[in-house]
């Protein structure tokens, strides 16, 4: 059997508990696995909206299209309505971190992840942990990175891994660290922030997750680009830059070299705090154009 995911059909095997159906299921799984396993060193599938035959493929999952994020994960009824009537096919979820604006996620759990995955949604898991000591929004400074950013960054990465697994997002998933806008001109503060980010990335990779990074284009992303040019290691695999009021595009971002984190490694958040209604359900969202990696889930 096949189910629709984005713009393509992917293999889906119904679960049987016993008897002839169970034997048939085993044969189907084996056949589908043989057909979809990538060659050694194969890259993520880059076709628009296609999940690269999840979950049988070991490749990272790639999505090219439109995404939204909102502070609290919407209800399943809202997700179903938006899947049927909106242009969006990916959603950002704030699955962990002490700095989240909406720490109480009423709807978000493993069953929610499984349900929206079956609807055909792609997931952008966002972790909002400790923030830069010189973060622009002053109330965020109560979450400031401490004096040992390497140890703290690694610890929060392990927390992200535990929470991702609890939500059903498996190794091979891309998890996005949210670092809000900060004063990159404060050299000591910026250095501590970058050390925290690098430690988070390194520890995430050790657990076989892919590190993504969200920040303001003119602060965290510009700082990251300078680190890349300086050939500093342990940088994220994917970047998600916030630049509002500009035409949605993953290319042409002035804070990034045209070939940096290209292809298929960028997300542009181009509008924020926008109210939209689809299928009779209204949300306050940020809008994103994505050509990047997303989460992998068990079915």
**How many alpha or pi helices?**
6
Tell me the total number of β-strands: 10
CATH architecture: Alpha-Beta Barrel
* Poorly predicted residue ranges: 1-57
Task: Report what the structure shows.
The protein is α/β, with parallel strands linked by helices and 299 residues long. The chain has a single domain, classed as Glycosidases (TIM Barrel), CATH 3.20.20.80. Helix content is 30%, strand content 25%. The chain has 6 helices and 10 strands, in the order E-E-H-E-H-E-H-E-H-E-H-E-H-E-E-E. The protein has an 8-stranded mixed beta barrel with strand order 3-4-5-6-7-8-9-10, surrounded by 5 helices. The protein has a two-stranded antiparallel sheet with strand order 1-2. Helix 6 links the parallel strand 7 and strand 8. Helix 4 (149-166) packs across helix 5. The chain is globular.
């Amino acid at each position: 059997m096949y189910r629709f995911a984005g713009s393509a059909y992917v293999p889906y095997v119904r679960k049987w508990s016993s008897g002839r159906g169970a034997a048939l299921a085993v044969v189907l799984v084996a056949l589908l696995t043989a057909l979809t396993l990538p060659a050694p060193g194969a890259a993520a599938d880059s076709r628009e909206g296609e999940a690269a035959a999840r979950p049988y493929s070991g490749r990272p999952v790639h999505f090219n299209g439109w995404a939204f994020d909102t502070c609290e994960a919407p209800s399943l009824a809202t997700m179903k309505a938006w899947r049927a009537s909106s242009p969006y096919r990916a959603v950002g979820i704030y699955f962990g971190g002490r700095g989240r604006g909406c720490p109480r996620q009423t709807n978000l759990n493993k069953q929610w992840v499984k349900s929206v995955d079956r609807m055909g949604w792609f997931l952008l898991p966002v972790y909002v942990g400790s923030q830069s000591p010189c973060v622009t929004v002053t109330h965020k400074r109560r979450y400031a990175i401490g004096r040992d950013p390497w140890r703290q960054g690694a610890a929060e990465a392990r927390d992200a891994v535990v929470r991702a697994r609890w939500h059903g997002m498996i190794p091979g998933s891309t998890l996005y660290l949210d670092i809000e806008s900060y004063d990159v001109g404060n050299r000591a503060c910026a250095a501590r922030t970058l050390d925290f980010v690098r430690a988070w990335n390194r520890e995430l990779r050790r657990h076989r997750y892919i590190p993504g990074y969200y920040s303001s284009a003119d602060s965290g992303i510009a700082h990251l680009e300078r680190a890349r040019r300086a050939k500093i290691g342990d940088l994220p695999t994917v970047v998600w830059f916030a630049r509002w009021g500009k035409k949605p595009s993953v290319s042409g971002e002035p804070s990034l070299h045209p070939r940096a984190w290209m292809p298929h490694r960028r997300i542009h958040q181009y509008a924020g705090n926008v109210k939209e209604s689809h299928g009779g359900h209204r949300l306050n969202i940020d809008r994103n154009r994505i050509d990047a990696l997303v989460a992998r889930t068990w079915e």
